[in-house]
Write a structure and sequence with these properties.
53% of the residues lie in helices and 20% in strands. It is α+β, with helices and mostly antiparallel strands and 215 residues long. It has a 5-stranded antiparallel beta sheet with strand order 3-4-2-1-5. The longest helix is centred in the first third of the chain and has 73 residues, at 14-86. It has 2 domains: 1-86; 93-214, 2-Layer Sandwich (Alpha-Beta Plaits).
Length: 215
């Protein structure tokens, strides 16, 4: 009892009371002046961080979409380039003649004649009638005919409408071009090349006078 009485009496001393009050005031000031503002600041920073993380996630998604679209654009650009070469805006018979001559050289046939001297402006595609004659062995003539449809060998779009082979040697009249042989054949080929008259109809119309005939 005396010990408790001493403790209570000690607590009642002015120095102790002042010290306790000072500590309480200091703690209150620390909370008001530093802890509370810093807590609010931390809460604000956490909120901003969450917002930034959300924006970063959105940007990552957008970047992934952009990369996917970029890859598609590259593929489509390749197709567009191929289509522009296959169906140009003008007849361009000179270029067509060069391409067919190069194809003949690549397949080792002789291009005896080629006529692509007229063009017809149509909708949506203009057309160029083709008549040509080639000479070569069975396999080379068939290779020429096949590669007309190969865009890696002939960039221009051409459809074959007629193919008439005949042996060069009259004594080989009964030889079938579909059978393996070294017999030389002449082949008359008719076909159609195309151009996009809708892109430049006036230029396409003016180009119909072009004549590129090989004999």
């Amino acid at each position: 009892m005396k010990f408790q009485s001493l403790n209570i009496n000690a607590l009642k001393r002015p120095v102790v009371l002042i010290t306790v009050a000072a500590v309480a005031i200091a703690a209150a000031l620390w909370w008001i002046e530093w802890m509370s503002p810093e807590g609010n600041k931390l809460s604000t920073e956490n909120s901003e961080l969450a917002t930034l993380n959300g924006q970063l996630a959105t940007l990552k998604v957008n970047l992934a979409v952009a990369k996917s679209q970029e890859a598609k654009v590259a593929v489509y650009a390749g197709y567009l380039s191929m289509f522009e070469a296959a169906v140009p805006p003008l007849p361009e018979q000179g270029t067509l003649t060069t391409e067919l001559s190069n194809l003949a050289n690549a397949t080792k046939v002789n291009l005896l004649s080629l006529s692509d001297d007229t063009s017809v402006v149509g909708t949506p595609l203009g057309t160029i009638p083709l008549t040509m004659q080639v000479q070569g062995t069975r396999q080379n003539v068939i290779a020429f005919l096949t590669d007309i449809y190969n865009p890696n060998m002939l960039a221009r779009l051409v459809t074959v409408t007629g193919f008439t082979p005949s042996p060069v040697n009259a004594t080989s009249a009964g030889v079938n071009i579909l059978q393996k042989s070294n017999t030389l054949f002449n082949a008359s080929i008719t076909g159609v090349a195309y151009f996009d008259a809708e892109i430049n109809p006036s230029g396409a119309a003016a180009a119909t006078v072009t004549t590129t005939t090989v004999n």
